[in-house]
């Protein structure tokens, strides 16, 4: 591990453990140099990583202030599963599997996230996600059978990505996403327990492996009154 990566990780761990609390200043650059026996350039690289990842805000002449990253816990830009988020924040969840069989991919629905998508047979996994005993999301996953083997019922009720990256041995790399607000369908009303006048937040995505193979198309239909999306954005000046 590079020295500045090690410094970044140690400072990140201390921020998350609240050794450096929100609103407090990190030690000065010179103090960090002494603490880690590192050059000024190495320390600055570590601080830049912390800044880019939303842990600190640097001000010239004032140092680096720890900021409240807890506000950004449901990132729209990350590739993270619902089960992983639930585990991270110790939420009470359960999953009801509605469908687990072959179906035709509705390519038209995913044209904006993958212009090259084609109609084809995929593994369809449809699930309702409950948070604190309330239905939150209908997850509709279309999985390429050339890449993804049959999904056991126990996996469908738990973490799909843990299965794919564990026993199956895939390496999931990135996803293209689109977020829209749409009128609730009859299925949304039935499974999410919402009125006909309600809207849902729909996140459509195309996920790829490290070799760029597109293996998953997902449509997540969220109750608008129960789910918030947060992300951390930093202005990049031209």
Automatic annotation (TrEMBL):
The protein's matches in SMART domains, at most eight in alphabetical order, are given as:
HTH_GNTR (SM00345), UTRA (SM00866)
Q: Which PROSITE patterns match?
A: HTH_GNTR
Q: Does the keyword DNA-binding apply?
A: yes
Question: What molecular function does GO assign, one term?
Answer: DNA-binding transcription factor activity
The residues forming the signal peptide are none
Tell me which residues make up the HTH gntR-type domain. 1-69
The record lists the membrane-crossing segments as: none
Known InterPro entries for this protein? Bact_HTH_transcr_reg, Chorismate_lyase_/UTRA_dom_sf, TreR, Tscrpt_reg_HTH_GntR, UTRA, WH-like_DNA-bd_sf, WH_DNA-bd_sf
Q: Does the keyword RNA-binding apply?
A: no
Q: Which domain of life is it from?
A: Bacteria
Biological process GO annotation list?
negative regulation of DNA-templated transcription
Task: Cite the entry's keywords alphabetically.
Answer: DNA-binding, Transcription, Transcription regulation
Give the protein name, as stated in the record. Trehalose operon repressor
């Amino acid at each position: 591990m590079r020295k500045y990566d090690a410094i970044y990780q140690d400072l990140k761990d201390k921020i998350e453990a609240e050794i450096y609390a929100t609103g407090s200043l990190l030690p000065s650059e010179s103090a960090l140099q002494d603490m880690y026996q590192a050059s000024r350039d190495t320390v600055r690289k570590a601080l830049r990583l912390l800044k880019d990842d939303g842990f600190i805000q640097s001000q010239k002449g004032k140092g680096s202030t720890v900021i409240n990253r807890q506000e950004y816990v449901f990132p729209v830009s990350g590739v993270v599963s619902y089960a992983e988020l639930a585990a991270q924040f110790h939420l009470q969840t359960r999953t009801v599997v509605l469908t687990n069989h072959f179906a035709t991919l509705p390519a038209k629905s995913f044209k904006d996230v993958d212009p090259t998508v084609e109609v084809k047979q995929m593994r369809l996994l449809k699930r309702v996600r409950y948070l604190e005993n309330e239905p939150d999301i209908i997850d509709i996953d279309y999985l390429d059978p050339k890449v993804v083997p049959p999904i056991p019922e126990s996996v469908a009720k738990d973490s799909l990505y843990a299965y794919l990256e564990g026993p199956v041995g895939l390496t999931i790399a990135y996803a293209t996403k689109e977020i829209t607000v749409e009128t609730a369908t009859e299925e949304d009303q039935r499974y999410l327990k919402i009125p006909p006048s309600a809207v849902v937040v729909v996140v459509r995505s195309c996920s790829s492996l490290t070799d760029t193979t597109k293996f998953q198309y997902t449509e997540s239909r969220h109750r608008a009154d129960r789910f918030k999306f947060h992300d951390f954005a930093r202005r990049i000046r031209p």
